[in-house]
Amino acid sequence: YGGAPGGPAFPGQTQDPLYGYFAAVAGQDGQIDADELQRCLTQSGIAGGYKPFNLETCRLMVSMLDRDMSGTMGFNEFKELWAVLNGWRQHFTSFDSDRSGTVDPQELQKALTTMGFRLSPQAVNSIAKRYSTNGKITFDDYIACCVKLRALTGVF
User: Locate the EF-hand domain: which residues (predicted)?
Assistant: First the structure.
């Protein structure tokens, strides 16, 4: 039967379906920075019906996985990020009970608790104030919050 047309251009290149999204924006160095990550995530549709990630959130995501402090991520880090984002998106969706595309501070408290964060009501209130607009936390802000909490606590 043979391979699909338009297959990998390089011998041994991974057959991972995510590679297409990654390769479309990665430079010849095989790395992506925050701008490229933003384009990649927008093109992939991982945000679902939510608005695309803003650049600052993409910078946070790169720094979360940037073990060599290069300001970029390779394909393996991208795959790790993809898995994390999918988990967080499912989580967000499960707590967005009214399907508004936002969670309120009470829903945020429940989401953080089920993710293993043990935070005081005052801490959750501060987080909600930082990441909400008019008392609502968007998917983009929820992801930024999760990245920051992961970085601060090491909880995953």
Answer: 83-118
